[in-house]
Amino acid sequence: MKSVNAYAAALAVIGLAVSMPAVTNAAFSSVRVISKTASATLTQTGSVAMDVAILKTADNTPDTQINWTGVTLPAGFVLASDYIQLSSTITASGGGIQTYTDNTAADASPKFSGLINSVSATPAGLVDNSSTTLKLPTAWTILHSSGVPVAANPNNAADPNSFGWLYHEDKAQVAVPTLGASAFVNGDPYITVENSNGIHFGQSPTQFGSAASPNNMYLEADFTSALTPRTYSTTTLRLEAFTE
Amino acid sequence: MPRWKKQFAVSLLAGALGWSCGVRPAQALTVSPGRTEIRLAPGEKMKMRLSAVNDSKEELQVTVSKKDWFVLDANKAWGVDQWMKINGPERFTLKPGQKREIPVTVTCPRGAQGELVGMASFLYQTLSPTMVTPVISVSIYLEVAGTEKVAGEITEVGVRRWQERLQAAVAVKATGTVHLRPTGEILLKDSDGRPVARFPVPEASPAYPGRVQGYLAQVPPDFTLAPGRYRAEAHLNYRDLALSAARDFVVSAKGQIQMTSATQ
Fold first, then answer.
1. Beta strand pairing status for A198-200 and A126-128?
2. How far apart are CA B184 and CA A91, in angstroms?
3. How far is it, in rounded angstroms, from Cα A111 to Cα A92?
4. Residue B10 three-state SS
5. Cβ of B35 and A186 within 8 Å?
6. Which residue of B36, B69, B133 is in closest CB contact with A32?
7. Of chain B residues 30-69, which have a CB less than 8 A from chain A?
8. pTM of the model
9. Euclidean distance between the first and final Cα of chain B, in Å?
10. Which of A70, A241, B69, B134 has fewest C-beta within 10 Å?
11. What does the pLDDT look like over A190-204, one tens digit per residue?
């Protein structure tokens, strides 16, 4: 089943992304403290702002969506053909940017319909448009340098390219011990791309380091279980700026 | 065919053809305030407003929602739906330059302990559905007056080298019923007990009850230490809580740093 021609596979995977604004921006500012029995105060303590641009890895020109092109099955982890250029300014204490999929949300299309429990694969990643109980895992990494990362299994410690890759989590996921997946926790370092200490350059929860903006966020998908002809996609890859 | 479905189909076709439409004007949504802290007695209610401004040149569709951010074990019965109400429409459109005030009502539940922490989230996009959806979430803290316990401990003090720079950090665990957001300093002393450097520890992410949060001191990038034995002392404060701990370390002739004692 996995023996396919490259053209068919490319058509199946090229539809991974739907319309995507090339540039997005988010910002907020200020902190307010209110006590019912005291005066309300408003204190300016910094801000968080982000711009998101989609660029083609091949030539750094703008694109409208994140694609995986030319994937020939069988395949394992494959780097997307586009990357996200993330420009950010985080001066608010407790500010950060987290990323996850939300494949069971109201705006998810397709919407993941598989079981969500402690023994099943999480909803995170790209959902099979034909059989929405299935999905392909995805992972992300963020780099300050201009180099392009090498796709790798995040769990393969023997691969020196693996340490910077972190699996996407899904907002609805619960812990799946056999897969090493944790329950989704807002603000968890594992899903935090950037905070006031810098970019999350490694898998350790403490591996944040200062890096001047912009930084490049790359995605990879695990095609090990992919079928063809199929389309795998998500409409709910969230990039969430927050202040705690 | 609904408009968004038409756009979806067109987008899919565009993707299949490898077509790129180039850079669109930047979208921008600004939400303020970024953090709101409220202290209420059980049963009390307060009304507040959040504001959202579209600074972009495109019309934005905004979806407002709320979610729990941190839930104390004692407050499992008090989800965000029980204490935070975002009034007005769940979805609205903002034209370029348009501002909208979003009324929020916060009610302090009877029986809740410590504090409740939630987020008001603003998901926004243009008329076209997108694969990547930007979200802004601003925090709302509700402290339950009379039940708060501000307590914590320093679990680790550390000094290390990272990218050829000295890094000093302190980890704090909140052990009470409300979060801690400590500030202070890390003081370095030589083997004779003389201060050699003070690095401020600025406000950073909160340490929620039961959790450990790391705080980095602000060390000048060109700061170096001569080989020798040192002690790092962390002194932090949050509200009426004062926390202190220390740890010894050695700087080798090659500039390598090794911690030589447990945090005490």
1. unpaired
2. 18
3. 34
4. helix
5. no
6. B36
7. 30-41, 44, 46, 48, 55-56, 63, 67, 69
8. 0.81
9. 68
10. A70
11. 999 998 888 999 888
Q: What is the reported pLDDT for B129?
A: 58
Query: According to the 3-state scheme, what is the secondary structure of A22-44?
Result: CEEEEEEEEEEEEECCCCCEEEE
Q: For B42, list phi and psi in degrees, rounded to 5.
A: -55, 130
The whole-angstrom distance between residue A114's C-alpha and the CA centroid of its chain comes to: 20
Q: How many CA atoms lie within 13 A of B185 on its CB side?
A: 8
More confident residue, A202 or A123: A123
Strand duo B35-40 + A23-35: pairing: parallel
**Which amino acid is residue B21, in one-letter code?**
C
Q: Which of B11, B132, B136 sits opposite A237 (nearest CB)?
A: B132
Q: Where are the domains of chain A?
A: 6-29+49-243
Residue A32 banded pLDDT, cuts 50, 70, 90: low
In tens, the pLDDT along A156-210 reads 999 999 999 999 999 999 999 999 999 999 989 899 999 888 899 988 877 888 7
The beta-carbon neighbor of A235 closest among B19, B33, B130 is B130
- ipTM for the predicted complex: 0.79
For the segment B201-209, the average pLDDT, to the nearest whole number, is 92
Window A:214-233, CB contacts with B under 8 Å: 233
CB proximity B8 to A under 8 Å: yes
